[in-house]
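Minutes, structural biology subgroup

Action item carried over from last meeting: produce the structure token record for Ferredoxin-NADP reductase (Rhodococcoides corynebacterioides). EB confirmed the sequence was re-checked against the source entry. Recorded below for completeness.
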Amino acid sequence: MTTGSTAGVGVGARPWLVAAVLEVRRETPTASTLVLDVDGWPGHLAGQHVDVKLTAEDGYSAQRSYSLASAPDGTSRIEIAVQNVADGEVSPYLVGAVEVGDRFEIRGPVGRWFVWRPSTPTETPSPPVLLVGGGSGIVPLRAMVRAQAAAGSSGGRVPFRVLYSVREPAEVYFADEWAHPPAGVDVTTLYTRRAPAGSRRPLGRITIEDLDAHGWPAEFEPRCYICGPTNFVDTVADMLVARGHAPANIRTERFGPS
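Output recorded by EB:
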């Protein structure tokens, strides 16, 4: 399995850039998507993230890493999604106080392994893709889904299956998009604490039966991307290996408290 999330990987000598806030969209009661315009943005790949730095008037600064939620489109506009951490130094401002027109510094893109690239017309179409996200771990996976949609037929119409584990409906990121996913994308939401009316699956954490029912068989050799808290990622990766998936086809990204 290929593991990501090491801060600074792939950054090299990249400079800090100024990001201007164009739009703020509330995703859940405690999370927001920020649409940014970044002067000098070099472009990115679906699955990468950025470092965000806030600097106070007295010169004190703090920085945190956030996944890119947007697919690369050749412009200077990007999106990040931020979950508020009550005792955090950066997320409370980004979720609760930032306004359109505000500016802060970002650096990136960061990361080289936890990425998905659509096939070009001259390449053999990529194998099917399985995306498994826990909580806010859905953010970089959403960028991959958007990249697949943007590639369209030129990307070989690679089929995607998405399993999204979340505590309750109010905590679902990008709910409207999952209700109407792009062509070739199948989305299954798994609830651990409270489910919407009519849900047939028992409440609980993701199981090997969920992967059997909604993922890809190992013989299809899908590329698997897992993102979420460490225990979630390790559990899902172990279940996939137990079902015969090659570790080399499983890429993981973990997050946790700073």
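Discussion: The mean pLDDT is 91.
Next step: EB to file the record with the rest of the batch.
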